[in-house]
Design a protein that fits this description.
Elements (H helix, E strand, L loop, with lengths): L1 H9 L1 H24 L5 H6 L3 H41 L3 E5 L6 E4 L1 H7 L3 H4 L10 H17 L3 E10 L3 E13 L5 E10 L1 H23 L3 E6 L4 E4 L1 H7 L3 H4 L4 H5 L2 H15 L8 E7 L5 E12 L5 E10 L1 H19 L3 E6 L4 E4 L1 H7 L3 H4 L14 H14 L1 E9 L5 E12 L5 E10 L1 H15 L9 H18 L4 E8 L1 H8 L1 H18 L5 E6 L2 E6 L5 H15 L3 E3 L2 E3 L2 E8 L7 H17 L5 E3 L4
Parallel strand pairs: 21-22
Antiparallel strand pairs: 1-2, 1-5, 3-4, 4-5, 6-7, 6-10, 8-9, 9-10, 11-12, 11-15, 13-14, 14-15, 16-18, 16-21, 17-18, 19-20
């Protein structure tokens, strides 16, 4: 029986069509019988007129067809509705439908039940005021009416609600008006995505991103990210500082064009392109130059890693760089210092704070004769020559300890025992705490300089032809002798010698022969006098002899006679027999004067007196 009823209910529209057709058939019978008096009911039912029978059958067929058509449309409508609601039920987001008048809920899917904590039976027929605080419900109603009136979609990126099942939740809601064929809004469709977990994850992600950004910005390393084209996508504060640009001046710019020296661009960009094409292994560690905005070159040591997209394809490179400019400069300076140390012509000796030898350079060995192995760990006392007393070394170390260095001339001893003069600078090397760690001595053998100075000094004080002291040295020694005479009443005798007829020698035999004659007479005078006596060439053919100790005037007379006799002897000068005479004037202090110039003038006057007396003789100056 139940199956029959169910079958009837299932096809009710078809039965309705049949009943309508049968009703028309019976109604037409009654009209013909009672209104038009056309026979009885049974006759009309069983034996109607042909035309009446066809009309009644056509109507019955049409109503039955209409019932079948209505049944088919209803079934299609129910299938579409069921399909629609099936879709709604399987959407993971909350879906609700409101009617437009009082905005009561007419539909809520399963996801909505789970989210809100209400069954659809509890929800259907109620509005927002039954579930949410009034202020929030007012907000929902206002937005809903705005959607229905405007006929537009409303997108609410984030709204907060309190639910009975899950507590506070954050939803992303879209509200859409459902319109009829006339364009009028007949329902409000709402879809709400529960974003609570995603929002929490985003908050955590944002926090991590902010922390990462802070780390990125406070990092002392330069952080740079490049895309496949070499364009800068990320650069931190330190990177901007190193390059001298603001961040917005760098982002999106080509790294190779803006940050690399022109000479390196092609080579490094070619390596980069090969890496991006996955044809070359990444240089995990790499050093190169970058150029600042102001043109200054900086050296960066990079640590690189590839960046890949979700498909595992290379999409760029992330690099962390340390500014090693100071280190590179220090290394260059160290290499330069090592080169200077190795190839310097100056000797270099390094000791520790205990003054024990820790290093020497090749020039040290060349100058001193000691190899490094021979002096390693020893005090430099092995170089002391013995020329300097203890006070000298005390002053030397006092200067080093108080001023940090000592500079001056010092005599040292070579390995072979020979002493030599050196010019030294000894410096104390201190660490960051100011404590002495080493001593460095840089020295030069100044023997050639000393020799040159001696040569220059000799030339300044000696006659270049004869090698005898010149007038400058004579004046100095005569001044010294006069001072001693005045203090100690010492003896002074000055001989002024002039060669007679020397001009004749030059004119007859030539100046070269005359020069050789002067040298021969100079040698003769050297052999004649003592080392403590001064024999000077005064100029031209004139000589002056200073004697500071003698027994008597008779001794001076013997000396004068010897000069006259030996100089007047015939000399063989390059095969030429040459004889010259000489006139000698003698002045003795104090009668001849008590100052250098007076003594010389007195001796000169006595020499001219000898000439007037016949030459080739001597004469003593007598004050008149």
């Amino acid at each position: 029986m139940k199956k029959c009823l169910a079958w009837v209910r299932r096809y009710n529209l078809i039965w309705l069509g049949i009943l309508i057709g049968a009703g028309f058939y019976v109604a037409d019978v009654f009209i013909d019988v009672y209104l038009f008096n056309e026979g009885d009911i049974l006759g009309q039912l069983l034996h109607p007129a042909p035309i009446e029978a066809w009309i009644r059958i056509i109507v019955l067929v049409l109503t039955t067809i209409f019932g079948v058509y209505a049944h088919v449309l209803l079934q299609r409508s129910r299938t579409a509705e069921q399909f629609f609601y099936t879709i709604i039920e399987n959407i993971p987001d909350m879906v609700f439908i409101k009617e437009p008048k009082e905005l009561r809920f007419v539909r809520l899917n399963h996801a909505g039940e789970k989210l809100l904590g209400y069954t659809r039976e509890e929800f259907i027929g109620k509005n927002d005021y039954d579930f949410f605080p009034r202020e929030q419900a007012d907000y929902f109603i206002e937005k809903d009416r705005g959607v229905l009136e405007s006929g537009t979609t409303l997108d609410i990126p984030e709204e907060e609600i309190d639910t009975r099942a899950l507590g506070k939740r954050y939803l992303h809601t879209k509200k859409v008006p459902i319109k009829d064929s006339n364009g009028d809004s007949i329902f409000l469709l709402g879809i709400s995505e529960d974003m609570t977990e995603r929002r929490s994850a985003e908050i955590v992600l944002n926090d991590e991103r902010e922390r990462a950004e802070k780390y990125l910005q406070v990092s002392k390393a330069m952080i740079v990210s490049l895309d496949r084209e070499g364009l800068i996508t990320v650069i931190n504060r330190r990177g901007c500082e190193i390059l001298g640009y603001a961040e917005d001046q760098l982002l999106g710019k080509n790294w190779f064009e803006i940050a690399l020296p022109e000479a390196d661009r092609d080579k490094i960009s070619e390596v980069f392109r090969a890496i991006m094409a996955d044809n070359s292994e990444l240089f995990a560690d790499y050093e190169n130059e970058v150029v600042r905005r102001d043109g200054e070159i900086r050296y960066i040591a990079w640590n690189n890693t590839l960046q890949r997209d979700e498909n595992g394809e290379i999409c760029g490179i992330l690099s962390s760089g340390q500014d090693i400019t100071r280190r590179k400069q220090a290394e260059d300076q160290l290499r330069l210092s090592a080169t200077v140390f190795e190839y310097s012509n100056q000797g270099i000796l390094v000791t520790d704070k205990s003054n024990k030898t820790v290093s020497t350079n090749p020039a040290f060995s060349n100058i001193t004769g000691y190899s490094f192995d021979e002096v390693r760990g020893k005090s430099p006392a092995y170089l002391q020559s013995g020329f300097h007393d203890e006070e000298f070394y005390q002053n030397l170390w006092r200067s080093i300890n108080e001023q940090g260095y000592w500079k001056g001339e010092i005599w040292d001893r070579r390995k072979d025992g020979k002493s030599y003069p050196s010019w030294q600078t000894i410096s104390a090397i201190r660490d960051e705490a100011g404590e002495i760690t080493h001593y460095v001595s840089i020295f030069s053998d100044i023997t050639p300089i000393k020799q040159q100075q001696a040569s220059l000094d000799f030339l300044a004080h000696h006659d270049p032809l004869t090698g005898l002291p010149n007038r400058l040295m004579l004046d100095d020694r005569l001044e010294h002798a006069v001072q001693q005479h005045l203090r100690n009443h010492g003896q002074i005798a000055v001989f002024f010698i002039d060669l007679d007829d020397f001009k004749y020698v030059n004119d007859t035999f030539g100046h070269a022969t005359g020069d050789r004659l002067l040298k021969a007479i100079a040698d003769m005078l050297r052999e004649m006098f003592r080392d403590e006596d001064t024999i000077a060439r005064f100029g031209g053919d004139e000589f002056v002899i200073l004697i500071q100790s003698f027994e008597s005037q008779a001794a001076l007379e013997l000396i004068a006679e010897k000069i006259v006799n030996e100089v007047s002897e015939t000399l063989n000068i390059e095969g030429n027999e040459i004889t010259v005479a000489t006139s000698v004037g003698i002045a003795v202090a104090p009668s001849g004067g008590t100052d250098p110039q007076t003594l010389l003038r007195s001796a000169d006057k006595a020499m001219y007196q000898a000439k007037t007396m016949g030459r080739n003789r001597y004469h003593f100056y007598r004050h008149t």
